[in-house]
Amino acid sequence: MTVLNKKIKLELKEKLVMVNRVCKVTKGRRYFSFTALVIKGDENGVVGYGLGKAKEAQDAIYKAAEKAKNKLLKINIIKGGTIPHEQEAKYCGARVFICPVPEGTGIIAGGAVRSVLEAVGLTNVLSKSKGSSNKINCIKATILALSKLRTVNTIALERGISISKILNGSDNY
């Protein structure tokens, strides 16, 4: 069990996205180490990622899991397992576009982006990745796009108007 904001207890599911062996070559020998990328989520709107580095693969995975647990983020999911609106985000060379789709469509995404969307608990989302296919950058861009999502309630609070005015299309405030 993990605590988000030290009040809410969560059952997190862990997904190992990548383990990479890295080699540092010196004059005398080669030094091998490992990096691991882990995504944790409760499949109900909470997700986090972690990147761990160590001499052994298991230690790198453990470090990545701990970092993912400490970087949890709450995402707005609406009924039907989709997102409120389209969103695009860029991180370094990776650009990720996500948009809502009707119920029954499923997750249309590839690679690391799919792992994040499944960990959040989304079931009906379309995604397109452009630019870099680096898994770390794609995950960071996806989480950035998900963190930018706003619901009708948050928009009403930001503008200082009622929800009915937003839903009716009246912007006179």
TrEMBL record:
<dbReference type="GO" id="GO:0005737">
    <property type="term" value="C:cytoplasm"/>
</dbReference>
<dbReference type="InterPro" id="IPR005324">
    <property type="entry name" value="Ribosomal_uS5_C"/>
</dbReference>
<dbReference type="InterPro" id="IPR014721">
    <property type="entry name" value="Ribsml_uS5_D2-typ_fold_subgr"/>
</dbReference>
<comment type="function">
    <text>Located at the back of the 30S subunit body where it stabilizes the conformation of the head with respect to the body.</text>
</comment>
<comment type="similarity">
    <text>Belongs to the universal ribosomal protein uS5 family.</text>
</comment>
<dbReference type="Pfam" id="PF00333">
    <property type="entry name" value="Ribosomal_S5"/>
</dbReference>
<keyword id="KW-0687">Ribonucleoprotein</keyword>
<keyword id="KW-0689">Ribosomal protein</keyword>
<comment type="function">
    <text>With S4 and S12 plays an important role in translational accuracy.</text>
</comment>
<feature type="domain" description="S5 DRBM">
    <location>
        <begin position="12"/>
        <end position="75"/>
    </location>
</feature>
<protein>
    <recommendedName>
        <fullName>Small ribosomal subunit protein uS5</fullName>
    </recommendedName>
</protein>
<dbReference type="InterPro" id="IPR020568">
    <property type="entry name" value="Ribosomal_Su5_D2-typ_SF"/>
</dbReference>
<dbReference type="InterPro" id="IPR000851">
    <property type="entry name" value="Ribosomal_uS5"/>
</dbReference>
<dbReference type="GO" id="GO:0015935">
    <property type="term" value="C:small ribosomal subunit"/>
</dbReference>
<dbReference type="GO" id="GO:0006412">
    <property type="term" value="P:translation"/>
</dbReference>
<dbReference type="GO" id="GO:0019843">
    <property type="term" value="F:rRNA binding"/>
</dbReference>
<dbReference type="InterPro" id="IPR013810">
    <property type="entry name" value="Ribosomal_uS5_N"/>
</dbReference>
<keyword id="KW-0699">rRNA-binding</keyword>
<dbReference type="GO" id="GO:0003735">
    <property type="term" value="F:structural constituent of ribosome"/>
</dbReference>
<comment type="subunit">
    <text>Part of the 30S ribosomal subunit. Contacts proteins S4 and S8.</text>
</comment>
<dbReference type="Pfam" id="PF03719">
    <property type="entry name" value="Ribosomal_S5_C"/>
</dbReference>
<dbReference type="InterPro" id="IPR005712">
    <property type="entry name" value="Ribosomal_uS5_bac-type"/>
</dbReference>
<keyword id="KW-0694">RNA-binding</keyword>
